[in-house]
Design a protein that fits this description.
Elements lengths: L7 E5 L9 E5 L6 H12 L3 E8 L7 E3 L2 E3 L2 E7 L2 E7 L5 H15 L5 E9 L9 E5 L2 H9 L9 E3 L1 H12 L4 E8 L6 H17 L5 H5 L1 H24 L8 E3 L1
Parallel strand pairs: 2-7, 2-8, 8-11, 10-12
Antiparallel strand pairs: 1-3, 3-6, 4-5, 6-7, 9-11
Length: about 250
Amino acid sequence: MSTDTPTASFERKTAFDAASPTLIEGLPGLGMVASIAVDQITTQLDLDHHGSIQSAALPSVAAFADGRVRDMVRVYAGADPPVMTLQSDIPIPPNAAAALSRTVYQDLAEEFERAVFLAGAPAESEAQLGEVVGVATSDETEAELRDAGIELAEESGSIGGITGALVADCYAHDVPASVLIVRCDPRLPDPNAAQSVIENALEPLVDFDIDTSELEEQAQQIQQQKQQIAKQLQQLRQQQQEEGETLQSRAMYQ
């Protein structure tokens, strides 16, 4: 059995120089909230493809959009407003999480001032859908959340998957970061929860203006577009459970 540790690398495609940019993570997770929200942000702000993360631990598949093949895990960037986004066309497999996270804090952290991560949490009632709370990694990021009117999470819990790995590495290496936990429909991609996190948390926190009307108007189409990725994510989780991996008794968000 091979004991090689998977590695990853960031391949920079464009130069990027902006004042105090924020990295917003949009990797597939529960409700596809992060992916849907960050797709909208990247499109609305017309961000440039800044670079891609490559790793042998990622599946050997070809992603494409608009008739062109593209890298699976991509970073976009723009200077006005100063924003970077991290996106993927596939769920990140558990064995690739550590390598991808390491690449973000080693190769990308010098380019952004802070990171904002998005994690979905299953809504326990219809009234909870779209609720957002924050988790900070430092006094500085806690103050930023409070200033943006975002309540801090009161319960204890843990953040799993690639988002958890990214948050843990930022915390360990003193990279300013915060997490926005969004209550969403755990069964289907949830454009309405994505709309809520943009309007009620990301806009005041990052200080930009995103038109979210498309998420409401095209909710069914967006659900269909993201359904295949959501199914792949569920298959990964089922595989983990079958291999004997157990979740902690406290709430876990992804």
